Amino acid sequence: MVDLSIKIKDLHFKNPVMTASGTFGYGTEFEDFMNISDLGGIIVKGTTLHHREGNPYPRMAETASGMLNAVGLQNKGVDYFIEHIYPQIRHYQTNVIVNVSGSQVEDYVQVAEKLNDLEDIPAIELNISCPNVKEGGMAFGTSCASAQTVISEVRKAYKKTMIVKLSPNVTDIVSIAKTAEDNGADAISLINTLLGMAIDAEKRKPILSTVTGGLSGPAVKPVALRMVWQVSKAVKVPIIGLGGIMNAQDAIEFFLAGATGIQVGTANFIDPAISSKIVIGIEDYLKRHHFNSIYDIIGKLEM
Amino acid sequence: MLKRTSDFKVIRTKSLNEENFVLDLLCPDKECNFNPGQFVNVSVEHSKTSFLRRPISVHDFRKSENILSLFVQIVGDGTRQLSLLSEGDKVSLIYPLGNQFSYSESKKPLLIGGGCGVAPLLFLARKMSETGVKPDILIGARSLKNILLLEEYSTFGKVFTITEDGTHGEKGMVTQHSLFENLKKYDKIFVCGPNAMMKAIAKVAQLENINCEVSLENTMACGIGACLCCVEDTVKGHVCVCTEGPIFNIKDLKW
Question: How confident is the model at residue A136 (pLDDT cuts 50, 70, 90)?
Answer without folding.
Answer: low
